[in-house]
Amino acid sequence: MMLLSGAAMAAMAPALVTGLLGSLLAEALLRPQPRPFWQRRLAANAVHLGSWLLLFGVFTLLLQRPWFAVVFILSLQLVVVQSSNTKSATLNEPFICHDFEYFWDAILHPRLYVPFFGIGLAIAASSAGAVAIGSFFYFEPSLVGQWGLMPWLFSCLLLILAGALLLAASLKRLPPPTLAPIHDLHETGLYTSLWSYGVALMRSRAPGPERSPFQPFSQPLGEPQCPPDATTVAPTSKGNTLPNVILVQSESFFDPRPWCQDVAPGLLSQFDATAAEALEQGELHVPAWGANTVRTECAVLTGLAPSDWGPRQFNPYRTLSRHPLASVASAFKAQGYRTVCVHPYPATFYLRDKVIPLLGFDTFIDLSAFETQEKHGQYIGDQAVARKVGRLLKDDDNRPLFVFVITMENHGPLHLEAPQQQRLAETLPNAPWPLPNHLRDLAVYLHHLGEADRMLGGLKTALTEAQRPGLLGWYGDHVPILPAAYGYFGAPTGRTPYMIWSTQRQPSDPPPAEHMPQGIAANELGVRLFKRVFGRDISSDVIKAEPEPQEQE
Q1: Which of helix, strand or coil describes residue 407?
Q2: Burial of residue 296, with CB atoms counted within 10 A of its CB: 0-12 exposed, 13-18 middle, 19 or more buried
Q3: Which of 500, 487, 401, 423 has the alpha carbon at shortest distance from 460?
Q4: Cα separation, 507 vs 512, whole angstroms
Q5: Distance between CA atoms of 249 and 408, rounded to whole angstroms?
Q6: Is residue 196 a contact partner of residue 41, using CB atoms and an 8 Å limit?
Q7: ∠ CA(203), CA(206), CA(207), 5° rounding?
Q8: DSSP H or E run through 364
Q9: By the 8 A CB rule, do 286 and 443 touch?
Q10: At 250, which helix (H) or strand (E)?
Q11: Is residue 56 predicted with pLDDT exceeding 90?
Q12: Which end of the chain is more exposed for a tag (fewer CB within 10 A), N or C?
C-alpha cells in the first residue's frame, strides 16, 4: 500500500505544484498589490504554503480529482481577489476574513452587493463554474478508481496533516496584524492576511462594560444640571421639561459643494440654515468610507472608538449581538425616555434585530412599518421616514422621546438609477446633457441628498410643533460610493458633517462659544448629545476619542 500511496502522491504532485504557483500568480491580480513572495517574511510564505497544502488535500479528498481541486480552489481565490479589488475601489479597504460572512448577505440582499461586483461578471463566473464542474467530472478520472480507496485516502490525509502542522507552526511566528488592512495585505499577501485577521479575531475579547462612557448613567440622574458654558437645553416657555431628542444617521450624507464646484450652491438650504443656528456643528471623523455603516453607527451609539474593539472593529455588531453594552439609548432610557429606532430596511440586516433591543431601545421600527409607495428611488424615502418620526412625536405618552433614525434613501448602488435631466437645475445646473460618465452617479446622489435636506427641515418643524422642547442631532455615516466622480474631481477627505440643533435657541441669540466648526470623532457625538440634555460632562474622564484619520490619497 505504501508503494501505491507513493504513486498516488506522485500523480498528484504536478497538480499540487501548478496550483501553488497559480495561487501566487492570482495574488498579483490584487489591487493594491501585495509584496512579491520573495520579499515577504518566511513565516508569511510558510502560512501560504500550509494553506495551499491544506486546501488541496481537503478538496482532493472531496472531489477525488486533483486537477479539478486545483481549478476549484483557484476559482474561489479569484472570487476573493475580485471581491477585494471591488472593495478596494469602492471602500478604500481590501478583503479581510470578516468579509466572508458578506457572501451570505449577498444572497439575502443581492441589490446591496452584486451590482458592485458586476452582474454580468457574476453570471459569467457562475456559468463558467458550472461548465468546469461538469467537464472535470466527465474528463478527469477518479483517483479512487485508479489507485484504490486506501492509497487515495492516505495521500489526502497526509497532505492535510502536513498543511495543518505547517500552518500551526507558522502562525505562531507571525506578528499580530496592524489592523490597517491595506498595509497588512501588502506585507503578508492574501492567504496570510486572511489567517492573521482570523486568528486575531478569535483571540480578541469583547470590550467590557466598564469601557462604555454610558455605563455610569444606567441609573436615573435626577434633574438636569446646567454646565458653566450654558449651552445645554435651557428652560423656555414650554417649561423646564426634558426635551424630545432625535438623532439622525443620514445615509452617505456629506456636503459636496467644497469638493465639487459644479454642485448647485443652494442644494442644502436646510442644512445651511440649521448649521447657522446650531448649538454645535463641524466635521465628524468617521471610521468608514463608502459603506460599513455599522462602524460609525456603533461608535456614535456606544461611545467607543474603533481602537476599543481591536480586531472586532470591522463588524462590531457581531460582538454586540452577544455582548451588549450601555449606549446613549440605554442612558436616555434610564432617565425615563421612551427609546425608538427607525430604520426602513429589514431588521435582520447587520443583526440589528438582535443588537438594537440590547442597546436599550424599546421599539424597533423597520421596513415592515412602511408602504411600498413610500419608496423614493430604490429605498424608502427620507421624507417618509420624517413623517414617521413626526407621528411618533405626536403620540405623546407623557414620556420624553429619544428617536435614533437610520435612513436608507441615498444608499447605493447608485448606478442602478438613471439621472433625470429635469432635476439637474437643482443639483448640477451647468452640467451638459447627456451627462458624462463621471457625473451620472453623482447626479443621482445629489438628488437624494436634496431629499435628505428636505427631511432635515421636516424634522425641525415636527420638533418645533411638539409640546416639549426638542433637540436634533444630525450626521452622515460615511461619504458615498462615487469612484468615477472621485477619479475626475479627486477624493474628498472622508469626513462627514455633524450638528446639534435645539428648538430653544432663537436665531437672534448670540452664537455659543462652541458654534465655530470643529472636528470630533464619531464616538464623541452621542456623548455630547447626552450632555446637552443633562449637563453632565461624561467625556472628560471616560471617553477616548479616536485620533484624526489621515487624508485619503
Answers
A1: coil
A2: buried
A3: 500
A4: 12
A5: 10
A6: no
A7: 130
A8: strand 363-365
A9: no
A10: strand 244-250
A11: yes
A12: C
Among 514, 539, 513, CA closest to 525: 539
For residue 69, the surrounding DSSP H or E stretch is: helix 66-91
User: What does DSSP assign to residue 428?
Assistant: -
Positive/negative CA dihedral, 441, 443, 446, 447:
negative
Cell of 75: 476559482
Q: How far is CA 258 from CA 319, 437, 490, in A?
A: 37, 21, 12
E strand or H helix that includes residue 21: helix 2-27
Is the separation of the CB atoms in 183 and 96 below 8 Å? no
Q: Where are the beta strands (DSSP E) in 453-544?
A: 470-476, 496-502, 518-521
Cα diameter, the chain? 95
Q: Is 552 exposed, middle or buried (0-12, 13-18, 19+ CB in 10 A)?
A: middle
**Phi/psi at 474 (nearest 5 deg)?**
-140, 135
Give residue 430's Cα distance to chain centre: 34
Distance CA 551, CA 553 (A): 6
3-state DSSP percent of the chain in helix, strand and coil, to 5 = 55, 10, 35
Say what angle helices 269-277 and 437-465 make with each other, to 10 degrees.
50
Residue pair 349/406 in contact by the 8 Å Cβ criterion: no
CA distance to 50, 184, 292, 521, 542, per residue, from 547 (Å)? 37, 20, 19, 8, 16
Residue with cell 431588521: 347
Grid look-up 480507496 returns: 149
How many residues would you count in the chain?
553
Residue 235 has pLDDT above 50, yes or no: no
How far apart, in whole angstroms, are the C-alpha atoms of residue 25 and residue 42?
Answer: 18
pLDDT score at 138: 60
CA 513-518-519 angle, to 5 degrees, is 150
**Integer Cα distance of 512 and 429 in angstroms:** 36
Contacts with 31 (C-beta within 8 Å, 6 or more apart), sequence order? 85, 88, 89
Q: Distance between CA 349 and CA 322 in Å, rounded?
A: 16
Q: Taking the CB of residue 521, how many other CB atoms lie within 10 A of it?
A: 22
Q: Which residues of 38-50 are buried (b: 16+ CB within 10 A; e: fewer)?
A: eebbebbbbbbbb
The Cα–Cα gap between 229 and 232 comes to 8
Q: pLDDT tens digits, residue range 73-92?
A: 998 899 899 889 999 988 99
Does this model's pTM top 0.85?
yes
Total Cβ atoms within 10 A of residue 453 = 22
Locate 122 and state its grid cell: 457574476
Residue 67 grid coordinates: 486537477
Residue 480's contacts (CB-CB under 8 Å, 6 or more residues apart) are 252, 254, 290, 410, 412, 414, 445
Alpha-carbon distance 412 to 252, whole Å? 9
The CA-CA-CA angle for residues 43, 49, 55, to 5°, reads: 135
pLDDT digits (tens, 9 = 90+) for 498-542: 999 999 875 555 565 455 567 999 999 999 999 999 885 444 433
Cα-trace Rg, the chain? 27
Number of H helices, E strands in the chain: 22, 10
